[in-house]
Each structure stands twice: as C-alpha cells, then as structure tokens.
Design a protein that fits this description.
alpha+beta, Alpha-Beta Plaits, 9-stranded mixed β-sheet, 9 strands, globular
C-alpha cells in the first residue's frame, strides 16, 4: 500500500488524465495506480493525499469518517470577531448548511511558499489570514463560506488532513513524499 503526500501547486488539476493542455497530477507523480483521496480545485494549493488502497482512499475522503481538514485562507479584508463567529457556526450557503467548524485569525505562516503567480495586492485594501478546520468538504466550501461573511478568498492552501500536515512535512509545490496511514491518526 502506498500513501503519498503531495503539495499540489496552484492551477494543477486533481486528476491524472490529460485535459486541454492543463497541468495534472501526472505531470508530478509517476507512481502507477495511485489516486487522490479527495480533491482540491485548480485554484487551491497544498496537501493532497494519494493512495493505491481504495478503502484508505474512502476513509480519508468521506466526511462520515470525520478526518479533519485544515485550510489556510488569505481573505480580502480584515476578519473580526463577528465574522469568525459566523464562520464557526452553521452557515447557510443556499444549497446546504455547513457543520460547525473551527476558524481563527492567524499570521501568515513563515513556512508558506510564495504563490506563483502572486496574489494581487491593492493599496489601502488589507488582507488577513485564517485557519479553518472542517469535518466536511463540499465543493468550494471554504471559498463560499468566506464570501458569505464578506471576506472573499484570495488564496486557499490545504495545510493538514488529520495529523498529517505540510508544516511537519515541508514540501515545495510539486514535491511529494511517502507517509504512513498511521500518521493520519496521531
């Protein structure tokens, strides 16, 4: 059984099959018969686990297994106590209501790589960083949550799944390493 921690770069598709000349996992990982355990959209970066074990893939990706996922989010604007409280409480996004989560304001992590291309900056428009930990993971959920509280997402980096994190496994975008399934539940 293989379990691979991959630091997915910005604009890379979470699939191995080619699509219209866009970068995919196949451009970075050449291990046969591994598949992503969950997804990150092309505009998101960071930790992605890949495995050749279907049961493990299901246990990582499926929300019934309560594998916490932490995202570092740079938002347009300053997150105050009220917006953090709204993010943490169940939030109605129209087609579903989020489960309670953890959302805290943080400093930009020192270990975080610069994004290529860089995030736009506007004079006089502050940004802030949040760490949001979810027990679920609906399509574009974090982006939709921050937008719903008036803090549009500028950059989204998944930093941890369970106990496996990019902080403890420092990899640059496009790099990967093997980890053990036991590390997920530390």
């Amino acid at each position: 059984m293989s379990l691979i921690l991959f630091n997915k770069p910005f604009q890379v598709l979470c699939q191995f099959s080619a699509q219209d000349g866009r970068a995919t996992l196949a451009d970075y990982v050449s291990i046969p018969k591994v598949y992503p355990a969950g997804r990150l959209d092309a505009d998101s970066e960071g930790l992605l686990l890949l495995t050749d074990d279907g049961k493990l893939q299901h246990n990582i990706a499926h929300p019934d297994h309560k594998q916490a996922k932490t995202y570092l989010v740079q938002v347009d604007g300053v997150a105050d106590a009220a917006s953090l409280a709204r993010l943490q409480a169940p939030l109605d996004l129209g087609d579903f209501i989020t489960k309670p989560c953890r959302a805290v304001r943080i400093a930009e992590p020192a270990w975080l790589w610069p994004r290529n291309p860089p995030i736009r900056s506007r004079a006089g428009q502050p940004t802030s960083w949040l760490a949001i930990t979810l027990q679920e993971g609906k399509n574009r959920q974090v982006r939709r949550m921050t937008a719903a509280v008036g803090l549009p997402t500028l950059r989204l980096v998944r930093s941890a799944i369970g106990a496996i994190s990019l902080a403890s496994h420092p990899l640059l975008p496009g790099e990967w390493t093997t980890v053990t399934a036991a590390e997920l539940g530390k």
